[in-house]
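Got a spare moment? Tell me how you read both lines of this record:
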Amino acid sequence: MITEMTDKPFRILSIDGVGFRGVYSAHLLSCVESKLNINLLDTFDLIAGTSTGSIIAAGIACGIPVSNILQLYKDHGQKIFCKRAHARLPLISGLFASKYKNKHLKKVLSATFGEKKLGDLCKPLIIPSTDIGNGCVHVFKSKYDEGFVRDPEVFVSAAVLASCSAPTYFDPYKLKEYLLVDGGLWANNPSLVAAIDAKKRMRVDLDMIKILSIGTGTVKQYYTQNIGPLKRLCGWGFMTRWGRDKLINTLLYLQASAASNMLGLLLNTEQILSLNFETDAAMAMDDASLLDDLISKADKEFTYKADKIKAFLSTPEGENVHRE
């Protein structure tokens, strides 16, 4: 690779997954664009997004205003998470068939990204998914390295759909030789993946990396040891004491938290700005009625941290980055 010197740090934008809660990320980033007058495509050197975060990340990488992506959630959230007839029965939903069809989501993504392929993108983009056929990770990348030969002809809409295919919610997505599902199974917070790729593939010094990490809410619902006789009788079943939504929230939180903690060991605290919220309320990933609540939480976060965001994304005079 060619050695390059720039007058700004290497900036990474990382966007978490978790279904409809992507509204939070989309509104927050829309405020950064419109109220701080920051061009996200020009500002970031590498963009990564998992699951619902991949919709926003891919949109930015394709030059689509985040306000347009936010409108997709508003216009299509209810239709994307429209239950099948059998899904209205709680003992069947997600146990014997996926809760939702991906038909409408696929249609929306195709209309949004058109015929654009990963190889067409000028901006480095990372979209994690999971290859359940081979039991391994599957990371979509735009062609920012000559060694990337698998994905250049993959449609952006297909990569995003694969990353959004959360188990029990949507069927796995078959793309060429691969059977793919949600990248949130291993990289719900893709910031660590992006930082490592920046170091390995783009030869960026770790101390020159700055990461803006956007979450989708931390639902603080823990399991209690004090339970009633009915739950004690039922035991630790998927639909009983574990509780599907609570278990999924727990797994996604643990994964995102682990990635964040490991990243904190690699970088200094001033190199990372995390924007997120915590709640004790149940916030299912497929609940489109949360729209107003998520927008309110994102607006509050932006309002209180606007100056910090602006300072974090600014370039101090005389600051240079060496890249190879």
